[in-house]
Amino acid sequence: xxxxxxxxxTLSLSPGERASxxxxxxxxxxxxxxxxxxxxxxxxxxxxxxxxxxxxxxPARFSASGSGTDFTLTISSLEPEDFAVYYCQQxxxxxxxxxxxxxxxxx
Amino acid sequence: xxxxLESGGDLVQPGGSLRLSCSASGFTFSRYAMNWFRQAPGxxxxxxxxxxxxxxxxYYADPVKGRFTITRDNSKNTLYLQMTTLRxxxxxxxxxxxxxxxxxxxxxxxxxxxxxxxxxxxxx
Lengths: 107, 124
What we know:
The complex is a heterodimer.
Chain A: E1 4-7, E2 10-13, E3 19-25, E4 33-38, E5 45-49, E6 53-54, E7 62-67, E8 70-75, E9 85-90, E10 97-98, E11 102-106
Parallel strand pairs in A: 2-11
Antiparallel strand pairs in A: 1-3, 3-8, 4-5, 4-9, 5-6, 7-8, 9-10, 9-11
Chain B: E1 3-7, E2 11-12, E3 18-25, E4 34-39, E5 45-51, E6 58-60, E7 68-73, E8 78-83, E9 92-99, E10 111-114, E11 118-122
Parallel strand pairs in B: 2-11
Antiparallel strand pairs in B: 1-3, 3-8, 4-5, 4-9, 5-6, 7-8, 9-10, 9-11
């Protein structure tokens, strides 16, 4: 099983600041990685797939990069609605796995 | 409107069974792989099971293998998850989700449409 480790667990930032979230894989997932945003009481929302492709309707302030075992999600300037939990997910191998999540909270 | 709507969640005793349903609308259900996920209270996301467009290929997470069965009825635009021998650790909100791309047209197993979830509580 591919284990995804996200860092940090919590990120405390102010609106307008830049957020960088990391996701490390226990073995290479090539570029088969996605990012999701989840707000309390809501279902996850796909942000990024194939490591760097924004899903439909996702604002340009969300960008992502990486390949192999090291991935990053960047939010260039935090908007109030961006404070949420973010998960990475790999589809390189079965079972599909998620990281433990990074909570982006208001400082 | 493009949406998924789960139903069937309930309070069930350990060892019991439950069937979840996921009704799809607003897209051509039969062309997409479909999936189940769960999220225990206060915890992260966990993949449970996936099913290709025609229902031929199925995939299960180890914790549910042999106890859960994923199926679909493309004539009813509905996905199912039959859960048996339920355990306390199966307690979670269960979500169904649609694959991003039409099956066979690109990289599967990314999920762009999710339902609101249905709560399954396993307790005596």
